[in-house]
Design brief:
Elements lengths: L7 H17 L3 H7 L9 H13 L3 H13 L4 H14 L2 H14 L4 H13 L3 H11 L1
Helix pairs in contact: 1-2, 1-3, 3-4, 4-5, 5-6, 6-7, 7-8
């Protein structure tokens, strides 16, 4: 599947793409065997795909680590959104808030980002703040 002439990141990305395809075809066991090792060199797009795949496999902690690694290279809307969602699910409201603030700065007016920030405001029992966030997005 991979060429020995491709950079290592491309080969790991190929493994993620093939694992996602196998999973969609219903062969989860084969897909999981193809996953790259933790810390494998992935391109930014490969990191996002890997994180999404880990979520489908029911591995939210591993997915969060992948999204954090993606964000270490710079903010990305999908990585911020997913990391924020995962932190919110864990009950880590401070971390979720940080990710959502960065997301709304990166994508002002994005309704999906505002919806997530609103969810966080509701978790914090800040109804007025949540309503203000929604008004800003519209």
């Amino acid at each position: 599947m991979s060429s020995p002439f491709l950079p290592r990141a491309c080969r790991a990305d190929d493994r993620v793409r093939l694992a996602a395809l196998l999973d969609r075809l219903g062969d989860r066991a084969a897909a999981e065997r193809l996953l790259p090792a933790p810390g494998a060199a992935l391109t930014p797009d490969g990191q996002l795909a890997y994180g999404r795949l880990l979520l489908r496999f029911g591995k939210p902690d591993a997915a969060l680590e992948v999204f954090r690694a993606r964000l270490a290279a710079g903010d990305d809307p999908e990585a911020l959104r997913r990391a924020g969602e995962l932190e919110l699910q864990r009950g880590n409201l401070a971390a979720a808030g940080d990710y959502y603030r960065r997301l709304t700065r990166l994508a002002p007016g994005d309704l999906a980002a505002a919806r997530l920030a609103y969810r966080l405001a509701l978790e914090r029992k800040d109804l007025a703040g949540g309503a203000a966030l929604l008004r800003q997005a519209v």
